[in-house]
């Protein structure tokens, strides 16, 4: 089993399926079930791959494969996974079928005459999501700086179309804003990539991360390169003050796209900090750590405060994410092994809670016809299951012990105290603000008396609680939240060895 | 004759060609100007080739000729079709590229 | 059996999960299952207690390892249970009182369509509270700590279609989170300085802590305790929390959850012993809150809010005792247990009264209810005598010990703490008697529904009646406890001997005043308080609408402006900050981005003019470009 090139298979299968679905018109009618099946098969493959992963060597790259790609510039197709990569690939591939199921009606049903066009749009949607799945695996598995950069940029294309084609009224400008923001960060990174190669040993494998780690000897050059990479990742992550594309994009995108965008794609930013910034430029990372910790703290508090003032549910969730990304970045750069382990776990846990919140907010908006928070009230009585699941997801997001969010946040906070007590104390403020922002929204949406016409619609049966498809799209997410909150051990075992290798001891 | 003579002649031809392109409104004459510029370049290339004793310049000159021939075919075809459509060959008339 | 102690937690947790997952399908029998789960948990707990009693006193601290919970390299936290006399005392209190309240709720919530959900939340609370007291590390304790916070949130907001109730629930959770922040920071400091957060690890290493660090950790733990136990300055949520159904107020906001702060302080003995300043602050907070709560209780006409003030005040006694150090720990826990019984009894009694009066909580519309609710009257009377500390009722034994201990020490402290405790006893006697007389004695300030009085009569129309057996029986059991528990638990070594393996053996030094003097003073003050209340509320007619009252009364009615202070200090500045930031985010941070974009567009609009569509001008530009490029190359000699 383990001799199979698993990672390449996981990259190829969804990509091929996406192409076939897009190019064969006869398949358009069945795009959604076929896409769901392909994504489930891919997920099964990922699980099978995970069984071949040796947790005791989780700090190293496993299942590796290296093939020359463009030898004349030193680029190679080099893939492999360490513990964190494996966890992120599993998260990404687990979210894909959930998103496909949740966005089943992202393209509304049309009349018989428009059936063909509707089917084509649906097939496009599924194909884009599958293509994205393939690229997500590739980006988390890349062991070559050039390959990572290329995938990092190519990923923008499907997201651009997902946001720009399927979404709210202002989806076009949101998509452009997302694209331009990301490209700006990416181009700065490209400069860094080229300069880094020139500093390295060159040769046909001159872009391999292993061959470039720590090669920059001049501190000034190292710092410039670090900044070039970090800016791209900070835009992606997104950190204050380069976060403003996220609320605009999520406010327009479909809930499923937002889930993939914030739940997985944004993690590429923090993943890049862990997988590229730290091993490539250890000295500069230590130099920049204090400033980055300050930015992370600003993100935590700022994101939470601005979230309190939001009127739109999707923007609200986006701002809570900015706060949470602050925690992740804090954990990475504060200089404690425990905090870094926590940050990596946080990346997984946040992917789950954000999926729950975005999808439920989407289901709610489908029923209420609005994404504005003040358009609701008393919906716990109207849709009790939806309300209950929203509460669980929100509580996971604000780190209630017993749910997955707690483990990451607790480790980040407690670990931070060992490195920097003031920074950790400021971050703890986020805990209180989190309770406040989430419960405020819960109160405004779900408590009180429902409006008369809503209650009437409920009584008439025109308005229903979550149906089977909607429930089952969330069951795996909620189960994972609980299981990871109670038994995080197996996942932590995959992450701890990596944190021991990467943690910045010298940041104290 | 030294290299300089060839280059000066090439420069003069190029300038005449460039001025023709800029000054004349008639598309065919402008076209001639372009040809003149290309051939002035050819002259310079061949001259360099001779001075250096390598064939690279001559090869380039042939290349330019081939391209120029192709360009003439396409360009004249465009001019003819413009003439058919608009009854004029003035380059200032079809300013449709604007907007 | 000790190895099976996890069942104590697991049974109610499983029941709660089952009821929530099955949904409406379990409506018919959900309340029975939940009650059964609570009782089963009590039975398992009892078996564990019996086994621990069989151990010799030194061996009674059992650590049961369950599984490795958070293995994160340097910080590795195991999930395990600390089964010792202290935790078992709580287990008994929680499961026993919890079971009674489950039974009571069957009757109280009969007519509520969401009764099954209510019982699921109650079970969830019991499980979380048991995790809190059985945990063997601060981290796992925190799980229970937040878990009870969530259960409390869900239950206060159980009737959240009333927006005020939903707001009260949110307020409770957020203020609790402020306290929880203290607990998180304390754990962070423990990890930073000691490298562990388990009880055994911290206890072993705490003596090596520097005094400032120990004081910081102690004060932060105190902040956590204040949040959960509604002590000053985080007390404001408790009154509003009375929005929950009355059994919730009895179980969570009187008997168990709000006492978790006291548990935490006693549990963190090793930290507090290394930090005398933190201990002193703890005692001060307790002494202040016991007076503050008592004063609030005097001013309220809402029977539940008055009881909430009383709870605050009684927990103040416990925190005061816990702040006195090892000499006070056992008494704090003793009072906690007896208080759990009589306060739960009082709340359930109040619930019966409300139930009988159409859910009105206004004591001014009660009066003369003794005749129609004899059982409730009798049980309420017993609990009343217990809380004001009349011998031989339970409160006498436990509270008197705290008052005596408060008088121990040197310098100003015994006089201040002892004085506060004494004054508190007198005020307690006053407000509890006031409540008792206003409710059950005097003239009825309501008219029977069937009476033929004219519609202009201002008194509300009611049909008071005794509650069914399922509601009175638990109250009777609690009343029996309120009578006997003080005596029973001080037989022989009593509860102090039982707790000794945890609290350590202490010699009790003499108070600054002779014990008989303190005892007499207490009893005289209590009698005076009762007499005053009788003169004012028993003999006189109580007006239906509250008189204006003195400034002090008016302040007490408004919880001494706690909400106004919170609003002025936290809420309004917070709202302004939020609004400013939201504006700044779009205008400044995003404005910089959109500004750059707009600049690009504007420059494009200017440059677009060059694209005039004339081929010849393009050709000229190309030529000019070539010439300029050539010139630059020539001049710079690149």
From TrEMBL, chain A:
Residue ranges of every copy of the NADH:quinone oxidoreductase/Mrp antiporter transmembrane domain listed in the record: 142-432
GO cellular component: endomembrane system; membrane
Membrane-spanning ranges: 6-27, 34-53, 73-102, 123-140, 146-166, 178-198, 224-246, 258-281, 287-309, 316-336, 342-364, 385-408, 420-442, 472-492
Coiled coil stretches, renumbered: none
Main location: membrane
GO biological process: ATP synthesis coupled electron transport; electron transport coupled proton transport
MF annotations from Gene Ontology: NADH dehydrogenase (ubiquinone) activity; NADH dehydrogenase activity; ubiquinone binding
Membrane topology type: Multi-pass membrane protein
Keyword Nucleotidyltransferase: no
Localization annotation: Endomembrane system; Membrane
Keywords, alphabetical: Membrane, Transmembrane, Transmembrane helix, Ubiquinone
Family statement drawn from the similarity comment of this UniProt entry: Belongs to the complex I subunit 4 family.
Name used for this protein in its record: NADH-ubiquinone oxidoreductase chain M
Species for this entry: Serinibacter arcticus
From TrEMBL, chain B:
Lineage top rank: taxon: Bacteria
Membrane topology per record: Multi-pass membrane protein
Main location: membrane
GO cellular component: NADH dehydrogenase complex; plasma membrane
Gene Ontology biological process terms in this record: ATP synthesis coupled electron transport
Catalytic activity: a quinone + NADH + 5 H(+)(in) = a quinol + NAD(+) + 4 H(+)(out)
Regions that span the bilayer: 6-23, 28-48, 60-83
Role this protein plays: NDH-1 shuttles electrons from NADH, via FMN and iron-sulfur (Fe-S) centers, to quinones in the respiratory chain. The immediate electron acceptor for the enzyme in this species is believed to be a menaquinone. Couples the redox reaction to proton translocation (for every two electrons transferred, four hydrogen ions are translocated across the cytoplasmic membrane), and thus conserves the redox energy in a proton gradient.
Assigned protein family: Belongs to the complex I subunit 4L family.
Protein's UniProt name: NADH-quinone oxidoreductase subunit K
From TrEMBL, chain C:
Domain NADH:quinone oxidoreductase/Mrp antiporter transmembrane: 135-418
All residue ranges annotated as the NADH-Ubiquinone oxidoreductase (complex I) chain 5 N-terminal domain in the record: 69-119
Subcellular location: Endomembrane system; Membrane
Membrane spanning stretches: 6-22, 29-50, 86-106, 118-135, 141-160, 181-202, 208-227, 248-266, 278-299, 315-334, 340-360, 372-394, 414-433, 469-492, 512-534, 618-636
Membrane topology value: Multi-pass membrane protein
Single annotated GO MF: NADH dehydrogenase (ubiquinone) activity
Matches recorded under InterPro entries: NADHpl_OxRdtase_5_subgr, ND/Mrp_TM, NU5C-like, Proton_antipo_N
Entry-linked Pfam families: Proton_antipo_M, Proton_antipo_N
GO cellular component: endomembrane system; membrane
Alphabetically ordered keywords of this record: Membrane, Transmembrane, Transmembrane helix, Ubiquinone
Domain of life: Bacteria
Swiss-Prot/TrEMBL GO biological process terms: ATP synthesis coupled electron transport; electron transport coupled proton transport
Protein name as annotated: NADH-ubiquinone oxidoreductase chain L
Organism: Serinibacter arcticus
């Amino acid at each position: 089993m383990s001799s199979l090139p698993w990672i390449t298979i996981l990259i190829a299968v969804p990509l091929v399926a996406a192409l076939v679905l897009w190019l064969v018109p006869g398949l358009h009618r069945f795009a959604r079930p076929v896409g769901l099946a392909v994504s489930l098969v891919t997920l099964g493959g990922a699980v099978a791959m995970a069984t071949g992963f040796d947790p005791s060597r989780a700090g190293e790259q496993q299942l590796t494969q290296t093939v020359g790609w463009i030898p004349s510039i030193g680029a190679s197709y080099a893939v492999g996974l360490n513990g964190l990569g494996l966890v992120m690939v599993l998260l990404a591939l687990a979210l894909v079928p959930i998103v496909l199921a949740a966005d089943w009606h992202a393209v509304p049903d049309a009349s018989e005459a428009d059936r063909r066009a509707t089917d084509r749009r649906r097939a496009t949607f599924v194909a884009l999501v599958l293509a994205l799945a393939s690229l997500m695996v590739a980006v988390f598995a890349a062991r070559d700086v050039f390959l990572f950069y290329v995938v990092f940029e190519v990923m923008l294309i499907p997201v651009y179309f997902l946001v720009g084609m399927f979404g709210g009224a202002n989806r076009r400008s949101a998509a452009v804003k997302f694209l331009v923001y990301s490209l700006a960060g990416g181009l700065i990174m490209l400069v860094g990539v080229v300069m880094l190669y020139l500093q390295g040993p060159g040769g046909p494998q001159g872009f391999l991360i292993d061959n470039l780690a720590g090669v920059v000897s001049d501190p000034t050059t190292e710092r410039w390169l670090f900044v070039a990479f970090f800016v791209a990742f900070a835009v992606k992550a997104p950190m204050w003050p380069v976060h403003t594309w996220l609320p605009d994009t999520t406010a327009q995108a479909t809930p499923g796209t937002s889930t993939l965008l914030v739940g997985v794609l944004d993690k590429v930013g923090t993943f890049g900090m862990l997988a590229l910034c730290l091993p490539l430029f250890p000295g500069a990372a230590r130099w920049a750590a204090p400033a980055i910790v300050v930015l992370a703290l600003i993100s935590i508090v700022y994101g939470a405060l601005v979230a309190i003032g939001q009127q739109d549910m999707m923007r609200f969730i986006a701002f809570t994410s900015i706060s949470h990304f602050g925690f992740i970045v804090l954990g990475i750069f504060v200089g404690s092994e425990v905090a870094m382990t926590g940050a990596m776990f946080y990346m997984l846990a946040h992917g789950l809670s954000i999926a729950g919140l975005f999808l439920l907010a989407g289901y709610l908006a489908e029923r209420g016809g609005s994404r504005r928070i003040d358009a609701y009230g008393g919906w716990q009585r109207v849709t009790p299951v939806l309300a209950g699941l929203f509460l669980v997801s929100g509580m996971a997001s604000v780190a209630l012990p017993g749910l997955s969010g707690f483990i990451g946040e607790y480790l980040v906070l407690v670990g931070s105290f060992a490195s920097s007590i003031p920074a950790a104390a400021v971050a703890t403020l986020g805990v209180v603000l989190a309770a406040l922002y989430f419960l405020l929204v819960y109160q405004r949406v779900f408590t009180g008396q429902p409006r008369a016409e809503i209650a009437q619609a409920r009584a008439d049966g025109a308005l229903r609680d979550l149906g089977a498809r909607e429930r089952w799209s969330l069951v795996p997410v909620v189960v994972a939240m609980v299981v990871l909150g109670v038994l995080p051990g197996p996942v932590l075992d995959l992450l701890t060895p990596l944190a021991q290798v990467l943690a910045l001891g010298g940041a104290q | 004759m030294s290299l300089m003579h060839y280059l000066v002649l090439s420069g003069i031809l190029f300038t005449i060609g460039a001025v023709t392109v800029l000054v004349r409104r008639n598309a065919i004459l402008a076209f001639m100007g372009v040809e003149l510029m290309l051939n002035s370049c050819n002259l310079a290339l061949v001259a360099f080739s001779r001075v250096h004793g390598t064939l690279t310049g001559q090869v380039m000159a042939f290349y330019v000729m081939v391209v120029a021939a192709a360009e003439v075919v396409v360009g004249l075809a465009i001019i003819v079709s413009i003439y058919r459509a608009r009854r004029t060959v003035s380059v200032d008339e079809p300013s449709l590229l604007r907007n | 059996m000790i190895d099976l102690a996890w069942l104590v937690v697991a049974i109610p947790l499983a029941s709660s999960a089952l009821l929530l997952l099955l949904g409406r399908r379990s409506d018919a029998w959900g309340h029975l299952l939940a009650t059964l789960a609570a009782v089963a948990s009590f039975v398992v707990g009892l078996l564990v207690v019996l086994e621990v009693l069989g151990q010799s006193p030194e061996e009674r601290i059992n650590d049961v390892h369950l599984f490795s919970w958070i293995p994160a390299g340097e910080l590795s936290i195991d999930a395990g249970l600390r089964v010792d006399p202290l935790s078992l005392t709580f287990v008994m209190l929680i499961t026993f009182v919890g079971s009674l309240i489950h039974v009571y709720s069957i009757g109280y919530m009969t007519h509520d369509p969401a009764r099954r959900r209510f019982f699921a939340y109650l079970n969830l609370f019991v499980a979380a509270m048991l995790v809190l007291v059985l945990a063997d590390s601060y981290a796992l304790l925190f799980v229970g700590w937040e878990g009870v916070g969530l259960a409390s949130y869900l239950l206060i907001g159980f009737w959240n279609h009333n927006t005020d109730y939903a707001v009260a629930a949110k307020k409770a959770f957020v203020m609790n989170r402020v306290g929880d922040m203290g607990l998180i920071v304390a754990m962070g400091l423990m990890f930073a300085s000691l490298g562990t957060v388990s009880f055994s690890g911290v206890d072993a290493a705490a003596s090596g802590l520097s005094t400032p660090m120990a004081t910081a950790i102690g004060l932060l733990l105190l902040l956590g305790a204040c949040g959960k136990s509604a002590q000053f300055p985080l007390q404001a949520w408790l009154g509003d929390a009375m929005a929950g159904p009355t059994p919730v107020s009895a179980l969570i906001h009187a008997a168990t959850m709000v006492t978790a702060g006291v548990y935490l302080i006693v549990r963190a003995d090793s930290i507090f012993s290394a930090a005398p300043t933190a201990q002193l602050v703890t005692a001060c907070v307790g002494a202040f809150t016991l007076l503050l709560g008592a004063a609030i209780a005097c001013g309220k006409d809402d029977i539940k809010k008055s009881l909430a003030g009383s709870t605050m005040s009684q927990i103040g006694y416990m925190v005061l005792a816990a702040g006195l150090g090892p000499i006070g720990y056992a008494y704090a826990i003793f009072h906690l247990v007896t208080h759990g019984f009589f306060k739960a009894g009082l709340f359930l009694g109040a619930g019966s009264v409300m139930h009988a009066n159409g859910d009105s909580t206004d004591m001014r519309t009660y009066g003369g209810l003794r005749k129609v609710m004899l059982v409730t009257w009798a049980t309420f009377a017993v609990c009343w005598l217990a809380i004001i500390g009349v011998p031989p009722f339970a409160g006498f034994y436990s509270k008197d010990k705290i008052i005596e201990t408060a008088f121990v020490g040197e310098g100003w402290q015994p006089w201040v703490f002892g004085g506060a405790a004494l004054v508190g006893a007198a005020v307690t006697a006053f407000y509890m008697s006031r409540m008792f007389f206003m409710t059950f004695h005097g003239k009825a300030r309501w008219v029977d529904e069937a009476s033929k009085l004219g519609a202009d009569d201002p008194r509300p129309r009611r049909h008071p009646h005794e509650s069914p057996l399922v509601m009175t029986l638990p109250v009777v059991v609690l009343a029996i406890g309120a009578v006997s528990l003080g005596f029973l638990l001080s037989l022989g070594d009593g509860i102090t001997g039982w707790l000794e393996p945890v609290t350590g053996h202490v010699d009790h030094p003499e108070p600054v005043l002779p014990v008989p003097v303190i005892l007499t003073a207490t009893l005289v003050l209590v009698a005076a308080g009762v007499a005053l209340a009788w003169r004012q509320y028993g003999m006189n007619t109580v007006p239906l609408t509250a008189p204006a009252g003195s400034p002090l009364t008016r302040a007490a009615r408004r919880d001494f402006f706690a909400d106004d202070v919170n609003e002025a200090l936290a809420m309004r500045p917070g709202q302004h900050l939020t609004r400013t930031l939201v504006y700044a985010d779009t205008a400044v941070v995003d404005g910089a981005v959109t500004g750059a974009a707009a600049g690009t567009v504007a420059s494009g609009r200017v440059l677009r003019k060059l694209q005039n569509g004339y081929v010849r001008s393009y050709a000229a530009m190309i030529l000019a470009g070539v010439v300029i490029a050539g010139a630059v190359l020539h001049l710079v000699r690149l």
